[in-house]
Structures are given as structure tokens and as C-alpha cells.
Amino acid sequence: MKHLPVLGNAPVRVDATRPDPPILGERLWRLGEALFLWVDRLIEAGLAPAASPLAQTGAIANTTFIVATVSGVLLLVWYSPSVHLAHASLEAMRASPLSAQLARSVHRYSSDGCMLFVVLHALRLGFERRFTGARWLAWATGVLLVGTLWGVGWLGYWLVWDEPARQVALGTAKLLDGLPIFADPLGRSFLTDGSINSLLFFMVFFFHMLIPLGMGIALWLHITRLNRPKFLAGRWMTTWIVLSLIGLSLLVPASSAGPAHMAAAPGRFAMDAWYLLPLVLTDRLGGGLLWALGLGGGLVLFSAPWWVVRRRAQVAEVDEAKCNGCTLCHADCPYDAVTMVPRQDGRSFALQAEVDADKCVGCGICAGSCDPAGIGLPQVSVVDARARMDGWIDRMIARGEEPYLAFLCAGSAGAGLEVEVASGRAEALPGYRVMAVACIGWVHMLTVERALRHGARGVLLVGCPDSSCTYREGGRWTAARIAGARAPGLRPFKVDAERVRFVALDRTRAAALTRLAESFRRSGEAPAARARARIAQVATALVLLALSGGAVLAGSRLGYAGPASSGPELVVSFKHPGRAGDRCRRATEAENARLAVHMRRGEICERGRAAVRLKVWVDGAVAREGRHAPRGVSRDGNSIAIEHVPVAAGAHRVSVAIGETADPDEWTFRDERTVELGAGQRRVVLFDRLTGFTWHGEDAQQGGAP
Question: What are the backbone dihedrals phi and psi of residue 592, each rounded to the nearest 5 degrees, phi first?
Fold first, then answer.
């Protein structure tokens, strides 16, 4: 194993010793992290860190996802997956507030809660920079999972078939019509209530049920590089989650807006912003721009682990000559980066450690597990660090000082302190010699014992709290090793364990670290953790419950109004083939020369149809006129059009004519009606070859052709 030499004695910030390199916009990321740490401190004033919801956002998201899945399956007892019956079946659930309505409300609020904690989980890990390097897989699959979760919720709101569902359907149609995958524009299916395809509605229902099953694979990939992942919330937290969802569902039952009417202009309604916030874009932007924003934004997020970082992190290395195959490093690694493989050097040990560089994040926790120092970080040698530590103690004793040592984790309260590398001096910690480490889990208990036996009066180890531990388990393993609960542990028969203190302080608590270190140096004692009164615990839990429930409820009932309409409108749409005709020309000698003799011909005829023409009169004046080319590679398919014609409120004489030939004066089909339009109303005129003209909306009087 190669070790990098330490040159000079210039002050170095403790957080500069992290193995992962700085990222773009480092200060902005740190501000976001500080916000989460500040909230952690407020919560942990009343609750133990293990009970804090911010310390287990991923586990809570998974738990609420399972609750949503189970309650969704239960809803099938009462729900009718039909465009004609869906809204009525949901409204009928109100008659059973303790069964059907309760299941519906729990499904609604657990889905919203899942998205809330997914967003918190992503923000927290992002601000803490836990997504670069070897952790790219968790980030990339996380981005896919968030997108998939949103898609499931978006489809779920389609199934309610109320006013928001109509806007969801129209937004989806706008997106899909931007892709060349449908012969007919999907948007044409949503012009009238009668034109909605029941099979399409059932397909939405099918995908809403099927996609969550496939998300299990992505969830497995999301945590596959973690040892001991906390996939679900604990028993007590799960109980709190379920009871709070039931309580919220009983207090504020989920409800629907009015039934969807495709011919009516959208009005103001309450939408669930956790899933329907994109309506702000789909109601205002075209399909091409929506795809550009969605794909562009997704690509930026997905690729963040590569473009925000300037270089790769340092990874652990194995000194095969020292490795005795004990497997402790394999057991302690939080990222499953250390595996045990058969030895190849002929030594008596059966196994040796091997580091997977693609998984290693460079935390150095494995070094704290290895008695013979056979594994560790190349930038900090355990042997060299112990020798430097001995020199510090000897020089302090020679000057008549009492030696105290402090090991500072690069993500802890000591992160911002400046330390002279060679001398170990830190202005903020007088009387101490300080060693900065990437993670407090790097510190081996033999190193601590050696310092005490060499003359140190005390050793202070400063790590991160569990709720914000950069490398997941460094502080946990250190506390367990000091207590003798995890090997390799501190040996109380060798040294006085009272002279060793481990404290977990986040990077915003530098002042607390200074006070604590001074207290430990002067009295040999670190302040004991303040006991939390039961009333404080209950009060904190209730406040958190109210805040999270309030956030879910507020987001699920956000007032929304689509873009302001200039007035009523007339929609004219047709699907009709133009007159067929072959376009023929004389074949050239060169074209015939490329063909077999029996395939040569005098004329080459190309198939095709004429463009279909549309003309609309309103009160005798031409309001819209255009030609619509046939679809298909050979230009021999149907012509399809959807035209929106704004009109003033009141009664109007509307005439529509369609021509299927190339003759501009020939109108093959014509119809005329008198229609009455009020503010926010829409009249739809549909035409196809089989049914002719059909007028949808308020009653229109039959009239003659123009």
C-alpha cells in the first residue's frame, strides 16, 4: 500500500481531508445541508435521533408506498374502472366513511406522504453530497424512481375522472401527440364525453396497477450497494405513520371535484400539487417544449454525479502482506465494497480482503476494523499517523503539558477548523493535538490505546450524528467499539476507558465542540447527554405529526386555475380520407435499367390522396380555412384536423364545409347550425365518413348549407 507523504505544516481545514472532491457550487450545497442540520437539532431537542423522521426519510417513503399499494388494492372492492362509472363509484364511497371512504382517503394521503418524504430524502442526500462517485447508482435509480412514482400518481388521478382528471388526460394527450406513435391524435379522443375510448381508460388503470410492481426492481437497485440498508421504518414509526394516516383520513376525507365534461372550459379547482403540479406546464406549453423540458431536466438530474464533481474520490487499498483474512473490514463496510476472496500468495490464511473500487467511497471505516493495518486509505497511513501522534505526545510531555488528542471527522463539528498537519495544533482547541480524518470510523481502538499508553491524558473522538452521518455507520461503529460491543473494541483491562470520549456533533456546532473539548480537558468529563422528558418527547412527536400532516393536506388541496380564456370557442375536428388518385409519370431509361426486364414499365404511378379542405363560417364571415395533408408514408392515409375557433358569447350561425378533392371550389360535405355560447362554454363539431357531422354541446337548431 502506498502512502502519500505529508509536506509542510500549513493549516488545513478539516473538511479538506474528505476523500471525495469538492463539487460545483459547494457553498450553496452547504447552505442546504445547514438547513437540514438546524431542523435536526430542533427535533433532537425533544426526540432521540433514532426517532427523528428526518433521519429515516427513505424508510418512511418506502413504508408509505406500501400503505398506498395495500390500500389501492383494497379500493378495488368498490371502484369501477370505467370512464362512465369511475366518478360515480368514488362518490358512492362517501356513504361508507369507515370502510370504502377510509380506504380511499388513506390511499390518497399515503401517496402524498410518500412523495413528500421522497423529496425530502432526495434533497437531504443531495445537499450532503451523498450522490457522487461510487454512489452514482443510488442517485440514478432514485431519479428514475421519483419520475416513476410521479407517473403512477399522475395516472391515478386520471382514474378519478373529475375536472383535474380531465386536465391530466388533456396534458397526457398533448405529450403523446408529440410522438409519432399514434395513427390518430390522442387529443381527438377527448373533445367530447362520448368520444372517450373506454379501452384507453382501462389501459390507464392497468398501468397504474402494474407499474408499482416493477418499481420493486428499481428499489432493489437503489440499495444494492448498501450493507444493512434501512428499507422500512421501525415498528413504532410504522405505527405512528398508519395511525396518523387514519386520523387525517377521518378528519379530512378525500374528495373529488365535479365530474369531467370535455365540452366545458376548465374552471378553478383544488388539485393535488404533489402529483399534479405539472398541470401548470401542460396547460400552457406545447408538446415539443414539454418533452424538451422533461427530458432535459431529467438528463441534468440523472447525470449530476458526473458533471458536478471534478475528479474521482480516493479509495481504500489492501496490503496483502498484512491482511490476515479476519473479515472484520468486510462486515463493517457500509457500502459492500470489501469482499473476501481466496488467497493467492500461499500464506496460511484462507481468505484475503479485496476492495471493489467501483463501490468504495473512501470513508476508511475498514481501517478502523483491521488490527494489522492491512487495509486503509492511501492518503493517510495508520502507521505514519501513529508515529506522528507519538511525537506530539512526547513533545508535549517534554514541555510539561498534559497531552490531549482529538480525532475530528471531516463532516463533524470540527469540519471548519484549521489544523497544522505536522504539529497537530488547532487554534480553536487549545491544549489538544488534532488529527483530521475522513470519517471517525477510521480510528482504530489500538490507535486510541497506543495514545493513552504513550502518555496521553485523554482522547476525544468527534463524529457525525447518525441522522447526518456522511458515511452512514462511522459514528455508530466507533461508539460500539469504545463500549466493547463491536470488534475490534477498546480493551478496558489495557487502558482506562473513562479517558476516552466519543461525541456526535454536526458541522454547524463548532462552538459546542470548543466548549465540550475544554470541559473534557479540564475535568476529564464531557457533558452528559441531556435526558429528554417524556412530555417533551410527546410534544415534539405531535408537532412533527401536525407539520407533516399539514404539509400533505396543504399540498393535496392547492387552488388552481388554468390559463385565462379569451371567451367561448368552437372546436371543429374531422378524420376523413381525401379523394384517391394515382399520380403517374413516364419512367426514364435509367429507372428501367435498374429493374429486371420483366419489371420494366412505361409509367410509374405513385399512390396518394388529395388534401382535405376545411372552411368555417361564423355569422356569414369566414372564421377558419385550411388544407390538411393526408397521413402515412405514401400520403394515402386519412387527413385529421382539430381546429379551435374563438367566438364571442351569444347566438351564432355556424357553417362548416369539407372538401375531399383538389378542386378548391368543390365542397363535398356541408352542415349548418345556430348555436348559443356562454362564457366558458365550448361547442364541438365532429365529422367522419361514417357518421357525418355531429354537433356537441347545448342544443343547436338545424339549418341549411351555405
Answer: -70, -30
Cell reading at 271: 388539485
Task: For the chain, give percent helix, strand, coil, nearest 5.
Answer: 45, 20, 40
DSSP per-residue codes, 388-416:
HHHHHHHHHHHTT---EEEEEETTBTTTT
Only one residue has cell 475530528, namely 408
Is residue 267 very low, low, confident or very high in pLDDT (cuts 50, 70, 90)? Answer: confident
Query: Can you read off the three cell numbers belonging to residue 589?
Result: 431509361
User: Using alpha carbons only, what angle is made at residue 33 by residues 32 and 35, rounded to the nearest 5 degrees?
Assistant: 65
Among residues 81, 109, 76, 101, the alpha carbon closest in space to that of 243 is found at 109
pLDDT in tens, 170-196: 999 999 998 877 778 888 989 998 888
Task: Please give the share of the chain, as a percent, with pLDDT higher than 70.
Answer: 95
The whole-angstrom separation of Cα 562 and Cα 335 is 47
Q: What pLDDT is stored for residue 197 in this prediction?
A: 86
Judge whether 148 and 51 are in contact, CB under 8 Å. no
Q: What are phi and psi of 660, to 5 degrees?
A: -105, 5
Overall average pLDDT of the 381-390 stretch: 93
Distance CA 54, CA 637 (A): 57
* Nine cell digits for residue 365: 471505516
| Contact in structure between 192 and 263 (CB atoms under 8 Å) | yes
Cα(90)–Cα(100) distance, rounded to whole angstroms? 9
Q: Is pLDDT at 339 greater than 70 in this prediction? A: yes
**Among candidate residues 475, 463, 478, the one with its CA nearest the CA of residue 412:** 463
652, three cell numbers:
351564432
Per-residue confidence at 571, pLDDT binned at 50, 70, 90? very high
- How far is Cα 694 from Cα 687, in angstroms, rounded to an integer? 6
CA 83 to chain centre: 31
What single DSSP character describes residue 609? Answer: B
Q: Is 471 exposed, middle or buried (0-12, 13-18, 19+ CB in 10 A)?
A: buried
Say what the pTM is: 0.89
Task: Report d(CA 309, CA 361) in Å as an integer.
Answer: 14
7 has a pLDDT exceeding 70? no
pLDDT digits (tens, 9 = 90+) for 597-646: 777 777 766 667 889 999 999 999 999 999 999 988 777 889 999 999 99
Give the pLDDT of residue 2. Answer: 43
Locate the DSSP E strands across 535-646: 558-561, 569-576, 583-586, 603-606, 612-618, 621-628, 639-646
**Which stretch of DSSP H or E encloses residue 52?**
none
Confidence of residue 4 (pLDDT cuts 50, 70, 90): very low
Residue among 323, 191, 13, 173 at smallest CA distance from 644: 191
Q: Which residue has the cell 476507558?
A: 497
Output the nine-digit C-alpha cell for 93.
364511497
- From CA 658, how far away is CA 666, in angstroms rounded? 9
Residue 69, classed as helix, strand or coil, is helix
* 3-class DSSP state of 357: coil
Q: Mean pLDDT in the chain?
A: 90
Neighbours of 560 (CB within 10 A): 19
Contact (CB, 8 A) for 310 and 22: yes
Cβ count near 125 (within 10 Å): 17
Report CA-CA distances (Å) from 131 to 139, 311, 332, 636, 694.
Answer: 6, 14, 21, 52, 57
Per-residue pLDDT at 528: 61
User: 133 — alpha (psi -120 to 50), left (phi > 0) or beta?
Assistant: left
CA-CA distance, 274 to 150, in Å (whole number)? 8
Quick one: pLDDT band at residue 650, thresholds 50, 70, 90?
very high
Q: What are the beta bridge partners of residue 604?
A: 585
Domains of the chain: 56-307 (1.20.810.10), 317-523 (no CATH), 569-582+609-702 (2.60.40)
Q: Are strands 11-13 and 351-355 parallel, antiparallel or unpaired?
A: unpaired
β-bridge pairing 569-576 and 639-646 = antiparallel
H or E, element range at 124: helix 100-127
